[in-house]
Amino acid sequence: MDVFCGIDWAEDHHDIAVVDRDGQLLARRRISDDAAGLTALLGLLAGHGDSADDPVPVAIETPRGLLTACLRATGRQVYPVNPMATARYRDRHSAAGRKSDHGDAVVLANILRTDMHAHRPLPADSELAQAIAVLARAQQDAVWDRVTAHNKLRSHLREYFPAFLAAFAGVRDGITRPEARVILTAAPTPAEAAKLTLAQLRTLLKKAGRSRGTDAEAARLRDAFRAAQMRQLPLVEQAMGRQALALLRQFDAACASADDLEAAAVESFNQHPDAGIITSFPGLGALTGARVLAETGDDRSRFTDANGLKAYAGAAPITRASGKTRSVTRRKVKNDRLAAVGYVWAFCALTASPGARAHYDRRKDAGDRHAAAQRNLFGRLLGCLHHCLATGQHYDEAIAFPTPTATPAAA
Q: Which CATH architecture has domain 3-117?
């Protein structure tokens, strides 16, 4: 490749720089962030040798956005470069610390010219894999939002209505249960909750979908709400009840979003050819499998070996050595989403796979703490997944975790 393109990304415009192999600036332009700007960019690249058989590679500071998606659709290699890395490269060209949008575009083009081998292009994932990534990541964000909304609501209830928390403390899922949310909507303050009759509580429980044990549960809740408790001043209590309803609406919306996105992600994942292989692994279901596929993709050339995938997921340790000093620590720079689902995957595999449990126990016996042993197990499972996807095989417990053969005793 003799021509390289750098794009300094902005919200409403982009600066373009095209350089040759010798670092000479061939063209520069500022384009708008619309279809006309994309047409101008493609025309500029075509004027410098861009073709379908030999597309010009592009470096840009973001892996997202319409411009990046459209450039990927042309079949060219798109290299997302972290802005912090761009800043370090900028210091190679100017000691004065100057900065400009055009200058950054030139720096990005020169990064490809000199260090293309050190950067990873965006994978050539299929359209279905990209759609699964959107849904799985959105669902994971919705789950995190749901946790945040739950914590806010719980913290607020502790300030004026601890009896409500106590009433659902011993119940599975606590205040996230549908009946808890329905009752809180009907009676957001201790005064209103204490006035609820058995008939009203039974009606609310049935409205929330409960069909068994409604009489006993209604009696238990009535006694809990009418028990003596500390109270805020009446007007303050009413105001805090209104705030609780607002927080409850946010929590309900987060729950609905997470459930809706989960159904969409699972539906799309089940249509993917790799779904059967991924879910054949112990500890991986449709939703967690969708999250794994979302972060690893289906481009087989993305990771040449399992070690690259493990490093990407944060399951491979980092070794730092200088002179006589040597340390091995966990990897902090990683794909946080894949690392998060890896923790769940490894934890579930402990009960679903005897081999995984034995591997975890061996690491613990060797001195690893729980997190380190689980991270090591996650790396082992990732290596197996990489092999199975590359060869088209389903998971086999006997191959993944072979039973160690006993060494015969010496005569």
A: 2-Layer Sandwich (3.30)
